[in-house]
């Protein structure tokens, strides 16, 4: 990558774009809502069960002008979901300013491991044990989504729930490959601890992206 492009990436004026697509939000509070997804490459959090490991290496995804991402997004939906990878690896300020200037609702799905940049209408925080979120994102998160892979994740979920704000909605979501085992455990847990809700990857059941 030449120095000029690297400088634009460092400023968030270009971003390593992995993919962008119009679909139905499958998870969390906005499940069932039509949304345009912008998947940004680059992540070093390293979840072993990640279902988009191809997003990890930012160098595999072409630096794309933020203005072009905005132009593409506004054609499809009023709701834009920025995901990754880990989008907060990069400065999200130019992208979100551009999207907000078009009157769009802008959501992020993040581990919260890096500085919170950008202007967000909805923050879905999905914390990971390997790199915990920053204090700021705990305070601003609209929903907390903890992925349940094994029983220790219930302990981790409760620990994380003590750190978010009082209005944050709490979700437990089965890791897809373990769903047959952990869904019954999550159901029992939520019934015993009703401050939590169940989140499912409904887009996978619908067989859509």
TrEMBL record:
Q: Which residues form the Radical SAM core domain?
A: 30-209
Q: Which reaction does it catalyse?
A: 6-carboxy-5,6,7,8-tetrahydropterin + H(+) = 7-carboxy-7-carbaguanine + NH4(+)
**Pfam families, per database record:** Radical_SAM (PF04055)
Q: What is the lineage of its organism?
A: Bacteria, Pseudomonadati, Bacteroidota, Flavobacteriia, Flavobacteriales
Q: Which HAMAP family match?
A: QueE
Biological process GO annotation list? tRNA queuosine(34) biosynthetic process
Query: Which annotated residues bind substrate?
Result: 24-26, 39, 83, 209
Q: Give EC number(s), comma-separated.
A: 4.3.99.3
* Required cofactor(s): S-adenosyl-L-methionine; Mg(2+); [4Fe-4S] cluster
Q: Does the keyword Iron-sulfur apply?
A: yes
> Would you identify the family this protein belongs to, as annotated?
Belongs to the radical SAM superfamily. 7-carboxy-7-deazaguanine synthase family.
Mention one GO molecular function: S-adenosyl-L-methionine binding
Q: Which InterPro entries match?
A: 7-CO-7-deazaguanine_synth-like (IPR024924), Aldolase_TIM (IPR013785), rSAM (IPR007197), rSAM_sf (IPR058240)
Looking at the keywords, is Cell wall biogenesis/degradation present? no
Biological role stated in the UniProt entry: Catalyzes the complex heterocyclic radical-mediated conversion of 6-carboxy-5,6,7,8-tetrahydropterin (CPH4) to 7-carboxy-7-deazaguanine (CDG), a step common to the biosynthetic pathways of all 7-deazapurine-containing compounds.
Instruction: Quote the record's cofactor note.
Output: Binds 1 S-adenosyl-L-methionine per subunit.
Keyword line? 4Fe-4S, Iron, Iron-sulfur, Lyase, Magnesium, Metal-binding, Queuosine biosynthesis, S-adenosyl-L-methionine
List ligand-binding residues for S-adenosyl-L-methionine: 49-51, 85, 126-128
Give, as in the UniProt entry, the pathway in which the protein acts: Purine metabolism; 7-cyano-7-deazaguanine biosynthesis
Source organism per UniProt: Algibacter marinivivus
Residues that coordinate or bind [4Fe-4S] cluster: 43, 47, 50
Protein name in UniProt: 7-carboxy-7-deazaguanine synthase
Q: Assembly and interactions?
A: Homodimer.
């Amino acid at each position: 990558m030449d120095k000029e492009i690297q400088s634009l990436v460092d400023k968030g004026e270009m971003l390593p774009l992995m993919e962008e697509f119009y679909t139905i939000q499958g998870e969390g509070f906005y499940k069932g809502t039509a949304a345009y997804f912008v998947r940004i490459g680059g992540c070093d959090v390293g979840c072993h069960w990640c279902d988009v490991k191809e997003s990890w290496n930012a160098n595999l995804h072409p630096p794309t002008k933020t203005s072009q991402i905005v132009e593409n997004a506004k054609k499809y939906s009023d709701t834009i979901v920025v995901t990754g990878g880990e989008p907060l690896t990069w400065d999200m300020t130019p992208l979100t300013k551009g999207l907000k200037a078009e009157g769009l609702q802008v959501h992020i799905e993040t581990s919260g491991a890096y500085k919170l940049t950008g202007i967000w209408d909805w923050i879905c925080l999905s914390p990971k044990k390997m790199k915990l979120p920053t204090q700021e994102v705990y305070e601003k998160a609209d929903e907390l989504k903890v992925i349940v892979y094994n029983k220790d994740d219930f302990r981790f979920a409760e620990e994380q729930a003590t750190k978010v704000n009082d209005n944050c909605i709490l979700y437990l979501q089965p890791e897809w490959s373990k769903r047959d085992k952990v869904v019954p455990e999550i159901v029992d847990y939520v019934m015993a601890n009703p401050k939590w809700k169940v989140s499912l990857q409904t887009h996978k059941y619908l067989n859509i992206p």
